[in-house]
Amino acid sequence: EPVRQPAEGEALVETLLLSIDPAMRVWMNADPGYVPPVALGAVMRAGGIARVLESRIRGLAPGDLVQGRLGWQSHPTLPAAALQKLDLSLGDAEAWIGPLGTSALTAYFGMTAVGRVRPGDTVLVSGAAGAVGQIAAQVGTLNHCRVIGVAGGPEKCAYLTRELGLDAAIDYKSVDDLASAIAKAAPEGVDLYFDNVGGPTLDAAIQNMRHKGRIAICGRISQTTAADLYGVKNLGLAIGKRLRIQGFIVADFHDRYGEARAWLAGELKAGRLKQRLHLLDGLEQAPLGLKMLFEGGNTGKLAVRVAD
Ligand code: NAP
Asked: Which of 61, 101, 171, 202 gives the lowest tally of CB atoms within 10 Å of its CB?
């Protein structure tokens, strides 16, 4: 699309960082189920961080850093409702795409409001070395839980135990029987399962849940591009175990983003919350980045750096 001068109530911005999210693949389906699809030929929707170049919005001046619904484009012109000035007292631009960004908010609300994490819980997190997973796992450790991560490959597992301080990590790609591996890491069962991947991993988790356990269904990336959907077999166990299984969308908690960011920024500044940002350089890397998410090519939060 051509670059457009801002009308009254709009700003022209320069994209700095773009978040790459598995949901982008879902938005390309004919019916994503919770948002309108991104049509063929339309600009891919994407959140990110930008610098204001020209502004006709009260309160925004050239040079200000904003977050917003930028799309895969270098110089979008956007209305005030699509932009929010960054509070740099909480963190810098990279923090706002990472531990203060939407993936981190998803982890925070999934663990607290949906999963109702409690000190002493045994917590299991799948996709644990990814953007949402790495924060969800640490919401667990910071709440004095025993946390077990599931991730693909020895390097990701080492990141979880050595850098993030998880109690155990399971490389699901190298175990024959995931349910047994979880049972070994959590002999007394799992109180809270934060599910990023769905499919057989969800089955293995259900098998290991304790009485009245909670499962927060955040995502199911193993099924997003599957030709044949995996049918979860162990749901019957949810009856006897009295499990509570709840899906959620981060935007459900929009009114409480400030509360989450205050907590995340506090932990970040205290050095207790860590996170890895996986940066690709150049807007043209965005499609490759989206593919990486489905092949496990990223560790931590994947983003594209469009400009310095
Ligand atoms: P991410 O975890 O940073 O990246 C995706 C990871 O998924 C990959 O690195 C890969 O890690 C794993 N993966 C890919 N294919 C897999 C498979 N077949 N089986 C198991 N794991 C697989 O992505 P993210 O942005 O943090 O998103 C994580 C999940 O949260 C996604 O399902 C996403 O849709 C969901 N989400 C939900 C909300 C919400 O509001 N509910 C908001 C944001 C994200 P390994 O190398 O470990 O396999």
From this structure: 61
